[in-house]
Amino acid sequence: MNGRNEENLSGCGGLRPDEKDLFEKFLASEQAEKAVEDIRKGEQILRDNPAPQPGDELIAGIKSDIAITLLHRKENAFRRTVYKVAAVAAAVMVLSAISIKFFEKGDESARMYTASIIPTVIWESEDIAADDVDLAILTAEVEKVADEVMSLRTGENGSNGQSAVIELETELAEIESDFWEG
Amino acid sequence: MVQSESLAQIITGCKGGDAECFSQIVDIYASRCYGYFYKLTGNKDVCDELLSELFVKLVEKISSFRGGSFESWLFRIASNIFHDYLRGKLRRKKLLDARKKQLKLELTEEKRSEAEMLDKLQFQLKNLDANTRELIALRFYSQLSFKEIAAMRSEPIGTTLAKLHRGLKKLRELME
Prior knowledge:
The complex is a heterodimer. Chain A is mainly alpha-helical. Chain A folds into 3 domains: 52 residues, no CATH class; 64 residues; 60 residues. Chain A is 84% helix and 0% strand. Chain A is built from 8 helices and no strands. In chain A, helix 2 crosses helix 3 and helix 7 runs antiparallel to helix 8. Chain A starts with a helix and ends with a helix. By secondary structure, chain B is an all-alpha fold. Chain B has a single domain, classed as Rna Polymerase Sigma Factor, Chain: A (Orthogonal Bundle), CATH 1.10.1740.10. Chain B is 82% helix and 0% strand. The interface between A and B is large, with 39 and 47 residues.
């Protein structure tokens, strides 16, 4: 202990050569010399009356406190790292969830738009004619014309085939235009 | 005196959280810092507390040390700790003063016993003003140059020289 203290305090005080010159910048040469002498003697008093030294127990206690503080700091640093990683992971998960939701919503809105042109019930129906009155009439007339075409082909009604076909086509065109006009 | 290169290595170790390097810093500076605190307070128990606080602060603040004079940096922390202690002491004194006669008597007795404990130098140091006393202790124990001390105290170097000269001259007269 004493060895350590002597080593540490032996250099205390004392003017350095460049510091002696410093006084001459502010004082006349003679006064500067006197001031340097005053300081030297004053600091000698401090050397002659050394302060007590810190006890070994105190030093050991300080070192132990430092070790504990460092340990706590390391633990806190580890904890902070874990929290940071957890926060980043949570952020990634939230972003992923939002992204998935966003893309899902995009598909849904497109489907809705399509459905707004033709009602889903009719679009998905197996029997369209039954769902729409106009379509039912059209279907009946188309079936009637189809029967007539068949009878003409087979020559069942005995009329001129060419004029009858033209007549049927005209009739079909009329039905079609009536249907779209409502 | 520690070589600046090896001190730099020790400080690097401290920044890395090496307890052994902090122990070395304690071994190098504990005596000087203790002496500094003792010359200012004259009380061993207070010195013990202040020295412990200084090194705990050192651990907390070492990452903010950006090079330059380590002594200057360390003694600036020591000086701040001492001033915090003074402010606390002043607050306590004000509280005590408010409790009139009964405590006044106790304070006088405490003062007397404290004076009895001090050696002659400590007693005479108390006769200097606080600012000069701190300057003398800082110069002697920190081993900083006048330039560094002036920079640390934010005052012109001429002022530092004059104050130290006057202070040490007066101390010598008091001691004779």
